[in-house]
Amino acid sequence: MAAAGPDADGGRRIGPDAAGVVVLGACAAWPLVTAAALGGRPEGMLLAVLAVAAGYAAGRVAGALLPVAAPCAGALAGIGLTVTVPQLTPGPQITAPLGHAGATAAMVTLSVGAACCAAWASTAPAVRFALRLLAAGIVVTAAVLGSLAGCVTGTAVLLCSLAVGRVRRRGPALAALGVVVAGVAGPAWAAAGNAVPDGLAASLEGRLTPHRVGLWRDALGMVREHAGLGVGPGRFGDLSATSVRSPLSDGKPHSAPLQLAAEQGVVGVALLALVFGWLLYALWCSPRATPVVLTAGAALTGLAAIASVGNALSFTAVSVGGGLLAGLATSRPFPDDATRGAGGTRPRGNRPTR
User: Fold this and answer.
1) Burial class, 321, CB count within 10 angstroms (exposed 0-12 / middle 13-18 / buried 19+)
2) What is the C-alpha separation between 149 and 132, in angstroms, rounded?
3) Residue 156 has pLDDT above 90, yes or no
4) What is residue 167's predicted lDDT score, i.e. its pLDDT?
């Protein structure tokens, strides 16, 4: 039975890795197909896929070698990048109409998730406490930067990380995270299609700005007219009346699902959903402890929610950070010498609970 353990674990690892290759490969191939048929600029999508794949691979390697230090370093790097790079922090020169608040919130969310993953990976109570203080400090930093969304999502990830210590079955929890993402993306589509009550619509426009809602409506209009292949990658800004009228617009609808649906059709948005589904599947099969897995899942869910109503995934640092956190949470740390001497088996408490 002991000899069968590694083989079984290896089989569980092949599934998520093979699925990742297929899904990311399709995400890279489809914009090339639509660009060949309709024209456009697929380089942005290709860069995003490459960033996720590179971050994931780096996370797998770093997590295997340094299961505590690697996510801690990632958390520090993420919040350091947010503070030091002007283009990621909200400021008066870029707040109207859209700004880069989504990128700041996303980096804060990923940094808090990485710090909490490092805390759960540590067995020393003092180190675990210090890493949770680091996560709380990142949330405070978001408040100082004026990122309300980052403060809210970072706090949610920290609270979820503290709560998952009592969770024994990761499958239902990961499924719930998928429902949360759908619950955030749904209202954005409803607002774009004027399918919400007038009072709620006015509230959404007040919080998200009428300009952003106008971009969503333009994107949904493109979906209705070009549902098959979309209008072509990178062409939304040229065809959107709302974007053309605004000199501050960056040519994107500021919603990842709506952008892919408009530019790459239903296949594009389906591939985006498959990417998130693959991440949840990889977390479900991960050999890491359940609290680590669910903490990373909460942070990636926060990222997906932010990307549903913002432009976070247009920043390469965010795409790399998301892939890095997923790789850290699905890595297999190398056993220490004592574990090797016992025949290479993991302690019972470290086995993943589905």
Assistant:
1) buried
2) 20
3) yes
4) 87
